[in-house]
Amino acid sequence: MAVHHGAAQLRIIVVAGVRGGQFTNHLEVECIALVGSVQTDQAQGATVFYGDQIWHGLSLSLRVHGEYNFFADAASGPTGLPASREAVRIRPFVLTDDQMSERNVLVWFRNDLRLADNAAWTAASEQQRPVAAVYLFSEAQLRERHDVGAPRLDFTYRNLECLRAELAEMQVPLLCLDADWFSAVPDCLARLCAALNIGEVHCNAEYGWNERERDAEVDTALEELGVSLHRHTDQVLLEPGRVCKADGGFYQVFTPFRRAWLQTLGTTDYAVREAQPVRPLVLDSRVDGLLDPDAYHQRVTAHAGASSDSLFPAGETEAQRRLQHFAESCIEDYQRNRDFPACAGTSGLSAYLSAGIISPRACLRTAKSLNHDELDTGQQGITTWITELVWREFYRHVLVGFPWVNKKLPFRPETSRVPWRQDEAEFQRWCEGRTGYPIVDAAQRQLNETGWMHNRLRMITAMFLSKHLLIDWRWGERYFMQKLVDGDFASNNGGWQWSASTGTDAAPYFRIFNPVTQSERFDPQGDFIRKFVPELQDRKGKAIHQPLEKPDLLTGDYPAAVVDHKFARERALAAFKNS
Q1: 498 catalytically annotated
Q2: DSSP string covering 387-407
Q3: Is 496 designated active site?
């Protein structure tokens, strides 16, 4: 389609990148105002405005995204749109395979800040075309809509710095941009793809409702550009939807899910796919919207110190070291030691799995190799840890199969009638670890001081808030997300709904942990309690579990119990039974 308007001069306002060789006789214009790839025949004698630069009398090849109106008129002059104009419509154009093969590849990093065993990175490397990487800062979305707190953000950004350094060694640019809300992401990526002549974008799938909606909108925007979005399975071993009941529905109970998951996994290849050497994309001009070094530094240091660098060092090397240490020293005894918070009996990998610093495939491969290639039989410590990995998969399966849990709703709708108490003062005592129940208080103080809490303690303290205090479980879910360095919506939501008896495969409502009994069973000598509750440091033996029986031995101001266990139990039972 030739774009002429009689003998009039054609004026085109270019809204984005310009690409091409000699500006003296030919110019190729990339317009990223809209989406979809189109092309015109050459237009002779055009005047092209790009920012403050003007070229006259050029042979012009024009590409825009989607149908777009350009304006032809006889007016002259370097600035402004003409007062009188006529629309010239540009028709869609589909790129050929040869044209696609000339385009570059972009890897979009999210919760997968590593290169080793990264499905998206590996797939991009296999395209044998120039590669760039991108990370989008969506902090407003994460903090205000997803309750992600400073500890998790700081841990993420420290790992982003490690990833950036690794990519720099390969001369692959990590392009960082602001997209404060997920709604800004499609346009942000579309503009970047147009500016860099990207043909395909690779990323790893995420399963939260907002994340899946964002990715669907990105897919649409890029498709109209002629750019393909490839989402890879990386956060889980088996994509949600692969493990279903005979009727095609999603499992609601963990045990049959685990059985089917293990059976399905037996036919799945989860061996390491080594990434190929990549050809870095060379940026020959400045890309609009990229954060400059000062702005980038402000983003990644905004929460510096919120997560402990000594407790949670950043980087793939540390994650792999932890896995190796656990495999060599702890995994065989995992089943015996995992419930005792004073004992270093867990893997310490939760934060690294949550931020994607290590893959679940690497964890499973290591466990399986130690267990003579068995998943469900063999050493009990190893099979128990594998079951914990399956729980992680199950909760992501729940996000997809039962999407209302993404929207702060209970999995079991009937539990929405439970008359939760809105007691701010008692909630604050729980947050601060001043409930008068030592195991609960030690757990909360561990969270507040370190950004992490032992899994057994998460169950104890979550059930205490939701059953003993009968305070809405969503208050506690939000507080955990704000404080945890390993904050992970799927696992956190699943754990809270289990404890509050509102979720899938939840504890029955009449199961109410006695915090004193739990304390005596899982911290029998009180070593963990003494570490985080210094007021009780002089208590010996079982006396530490019920300190107010001998208040003269207290050091400092330790509070009386916020509620009596017997009273709290009866109140909770009545609330659930009558709702």
Answers
A1: no
A2: HHHHHHHHHHHHHHHSGGGGG
A3: yes
